[in-house]
Amino acid sequence: MTNSLDLSKAPKDCRVVVAMSGGVDSSVVAAMLKAEGYDVVGITLQLYDSGAVPRRAGACCAGQDIRDAKRVSEALGIPHYVLDYEEAFRAAVIDPFAASYVAGETPVPCISCNQTVKFRDLLAVAKDLGADALATGHYIESRALAGQGGRRGLYRPRDLDRDQSYFLFATTQEQVDFLRFPLGAMTKAETRAIAERHGLIVADKPDSQDICFVANGRYGDVIERLRPGAGVPGDIVHVDGRVLGRHEGIVHFTVGQRRGLRIAAPDPLYVVAIDAPSARVVVGPRSALRTSRLTLREANWLGGPLTEAGSDIFVKVRSSRAPAPARLVVDGGRVTAVELLEGEEGVAKGQAAVFYDGVDAGARVLGGGIVAEALPDALRIPAEAPVPLAAAAGG
Questions:
Q1: CATH architecture entry for 11-197
Q2: Which element (helix H / strand E) includes 126?
Q3: Which residues act catalytically here (predicted)?
């Protein structure tokens, strides 16, 4: 017999570390597990100097959030620790974020935060504390894989409006086996109802929406503070080669952007590509945003033998978009590129492409990678036909 976390012990004999951000989701996880009789320990990470970052509604991880986590822990009667991870967070998340933007990319720092500080460093602390599992408030499901000797898989959650699987594709198999996500089968409304039943002070707290260290929502300002002089002026160029104007730095632009171009044109123009070496921002009509091939780096595969995927793969290129039909390109047993069968608009380098075996709740997360190149079709020389996955893998 196993308990609610698929552990073969009575809850009272299981220590579970809960990563507590101070929000309603992780607080409810701690409350649920405590009520079930688990030995719960709450840990909150101090990731940056919140006093140095202007705070607005929707920002996360600031000093108030740490205080909220502590108050919730006190109310639940569980031990709570705050760990200073500022230096590690800067090295693993903030500095690479700035470097990526300077290189003309649009990075997703929440992915690198989960990959390093949370699921590497915090997970190690949980094991040092003798924990049987590390639980978080992410909306994603984790289940044991049949006949896999305790191995676990990740799946899209019941509440697809809250799906956070996009941010967890880089999780290793060893980490997946240790992690638990108790909210995966719940809706946000159900989570808030549980918070109210437990009398948690965060029951009505707004969800965090911004990147925690970009609390004012202006990425360019943060990059220029971290990398003085990064705002090198350059040309704004139409896809047809015409120079339309000047800009003050590529760090103020991202692919798909429409507003803030400051150029007069009879029809709407969008940022189609960013050429960092020449400091050029390439713009064009919306039709020029379409991309059908992505080259990947740092690919992570969680789906078993690659030949299992066949051509029935779905890829999510942005957290807010649904997975769309795609075909993986494999070289030497590694996924190196993705063919987007229906095309996608506004895909930028530095974003993630996450693989699934379906589109609905319960679809398995098969892995993903960071977009190394996403040249729009309007700027790309036609490539050779994609290599079918099964053929490339020798199947």
A1: 3-Layer(aba) Sandwich (3.40)
A2: helix 123-128
A3: 113 (nucleophile), 212 (cysteine persulfide intermediate)
Report domain extents, the chain.
11-197, 231-284, 290-392
Six-digit token string for 293? 């091939």
Which of 33, 31, 134, 38 is closest to 75 using CA atoms?
Answer: 31
For residue 148, give every residue at least 6 positions away whose Cβ sits within 8 Å of its Cβ, in sequence order, or none: none
The yes-or-no answer on residue 113 being catalytic is yes
Please check the confidence at residue 384 and state whether its pLDDT lies above 60: no
> How many Cα atoms within 13 Å fall on the side-chain side of residue 395?
14
Which superfamily does CATH assign the domain made up of 231-284 to?
Adenine nucleotide alpha hydrolases-like domains (2.30.30.280)
9-60 confidence digits (pLDDT tens): 999 999 999 999 999 999 999 999 999 999 999 999 999 765 544 444 444 5
Question: Cα–chain-centroid distance for residue 308?
Answer: 25
**Tens digits of residue pLDDT in 136-192:** 999 999 999 988 888 999 999 999 999 999 999 999 999 999 999 999 999 999 999
- pLDDT at residue 210 is higher than 50: yes
Rounded CA-CA distance 307/305 in Å is: 6
Would you place residue 225 in the very low, low, confident or very high pLDDT band (cuts 50, 70, 90)? Answer: confident
Q: Determine the angle formed by the axes of helices 188-197 and 24-35, rounding to 10 degrees.
A: 60
Given the residues 14, 61, 110, 113, select the one marked as catalytic.
113
Equal CATH topology for 11-197 and 290-392 = no
| Binding-site annotation: residue ranges | 19-26, 45, 137
Q: d(Cα 172, Cα 302) in Å, to the nearest integer?
A: 8
* CATH no., domain 290-392: 2.40.30.10
